[in-house]
Design brief:
single chain, 268 residues, mainly alpha, globular
């Protein structure tokens, strides 16, 4: 997986987004088809198929970029590691923020509920990641993009947010309830829909803060959102069960959006 992710910079630099989508679909189909024909749960089989799907993606990426034609070298740069440390902390804080609800569920709820929660949250996290596709055109030239570019992308994000979130939520509900038979009530999917929306509205302001070298503001926002999500999640979990966690995540997402938008507007 680390090897596959290392191709991300080349994909962005050479704008190979359509090819990346094809590779992702190929890897997913291998995993999905094999899993669909598995009658009984077998952890070793699932891990094996998952590893195979990653291997196929790695090989496909190697073929795409013709790596064998390039001269390979290995070097450790302490300067670059030090420079990227803050961005690692930034990404790590974001990861903790997105996982804190799962830690609470693992601590206090049964394995059956944990399984259902992980399934639905993973599906909606994939839907939220669609927001990041909007930023693809400026990833390579983020710090060179002007305000007009950011404004245009923000308008695009605003226009597609509700339709994409609605369509995605419906598809997730259809798959998880009609095919997987997860057995969750429809209000949970409505809460997840509202939890997904903020990501479409805060992704461009976050990149705008990056451009203005205000990464610390994003870091502070991540840490504050993590704290809110933990406290609110703990309280609501005790009162409402797993539904309380869904509500906590939804509220935290909107609070995070408000904070990011406030930072972004004050920096203009």
């Amino acid at each position: 997986m680390h090897t596959y992710n290392s191709f991300e910079s080349l994909i962005i630099y050479q704008q190979k987004f359509a090819q990346q989508l094809f590779i992702e679909i190929l890897g997913f189909l291998i995993f999905f088809i094999a899993l669909n024909y598995q009658e009984k749960f077998d952890l070793e089989f699932i891990l094996g198929i998952y590893s195979l799907s990653i291997l196929v993606k790695v090989v496909s990426s190697i073929i795409l970029f013709k790596i064998w034609k390039e001269k390979l070298s290995f070097q450790i740069s302490s300067q670059q590691l030090l420079f990227s440390l803050f961005f690692f902390i930034l990404g790590f804080s974001g990861m903790i923020n997105s996982k804190i609800d799962l830690y609470l569920v693992n601590l206090f709820l049964s394995k059956e509920i944990i399984s259902s929660y992980q399934t639905i949250t993973t599906a909606f996290l994939m839907l939220q990641s669609m927001a990041f596709l909007i930023t693809a055109p400026i990833n390579k030239s983020l710090y060179r993009s002007n305000k007009q570019v950011f404004d245009k992308l923000m308008k695009i994000a605003g226009k597609i947010a509700i339709p994409m979130a609605l369509l995605g939520s419906f598809c997730i509900w259809l798959f998880l309830e009609k095919y997987v038979k997860l057995g969750l009530e429809w209000p949970v999917y409505i809460i997840c829909f509202f939890s997904t929306l903020p990501s479409f509205y805060y992704i461009i302001p976050i990149y705008s803060l990056y451009k203005k070298h205000l990464e610390k503001k994003v870091l502070y926002s991540n840490l504050f959102a993590t704290l809110i999500n933990f406290i609110l999640g703990f309280v609501l979990l005790k009162k409402l069960g797993v539904v309380g966690i869904f509500i906590s995540v939804c509220i935290t997402q909107w609070i995070y959006l408000i904070i990011i938008k406030k930072y972004e507007s004050s920096s203009s």
